[in-house]
Specification:
Number of helices: 4
Shape: elongated
Order of helices and strands: HHHH
Helix content: 55-70%
Oligomer: single chain
Distance between the termini: 62 Å
Length: 184
């Protein structure tokens, strides 16, 4: 049906002399949300810190264990990927690692910014405590990101070693086949 005419004639999508080109589809407007982000207090953050730290340590241990198993499998030759699959996986792991590093850089700068709670001793103490929770060397959120970066880097290195071993093995097999008079 031609747009706006009420007739059953269709449009072809091309404008000719004396005709109006078809209208562009309306832009999609994202739904409006009324949710708001409510900042948490230093007391609330301090209250959940032990649980967050425990979960972070558990997650780090699981990721480190998985990376160690991958590393061991790559070193022992039990991990077998073709070179193209290994390259694709290495690319994905490296991209994730780089994203984590970018996030760490942004987060560290932002989280290390002192809170502007005032100039009294209590405000300064809360600000210092929040900074320690956020970017502390032993347990801060920034440390968790750095730990994840290291795990992803280890995984990427293990995959590279495996890919290189596969490539070397394929090249040796090709040479052996050619030396024996066969073709690869």
């Amino acid at each position: 049906m031609a747009e706006g005419t009420g007739t059953g004639t269709g449009t072809t999508g091309t404008a000719t002399a004396g005709t109006v080109p078809p209208a562009e589809p309306p832009a999609v407007t994202p739904p409006v949300t009324t949710s708001t982000t409510v900042p948490i207090t230093a007391e609330q953050l301090a209250a959940v810190k032990p649980a967050l730290q425990q979960q972070m340590l558990t997650d780090k241990a699981e990721a480190s264990h998985a990376a160690a198993k991958l590393d061991q499998a790559a070193d022992s030759g039990k991990l077998t990927l073709d070179v193209d699959a290994a390259d694709a996986l290495i690319k994905a792991v490296d991209a994730a690692r780089d994203q984590v590093m970018d996030l760490w850089k942004r987060a560290t700068d932002q989280l290390a910014t002192p809170l502007q709670l005032g100039e009294n001793p209590v405000a300064k103490a809360i600000s210092a405590r929040f900074a320690d929770l956020a970017v502390g060397e032993d347990s801060g959120a920034a440390k968790a990101l750095l730990d994840l970066f290291k795990v992803l880097d280890d995984i990427g290195n293990a995959l590279r070693r495996n890919r290189d071993t596969i490539r070397d093995t394929d090249e040796e097999a090709e040479k052996s086949m050619k030396n024996a008079g066969g073709s690869w």
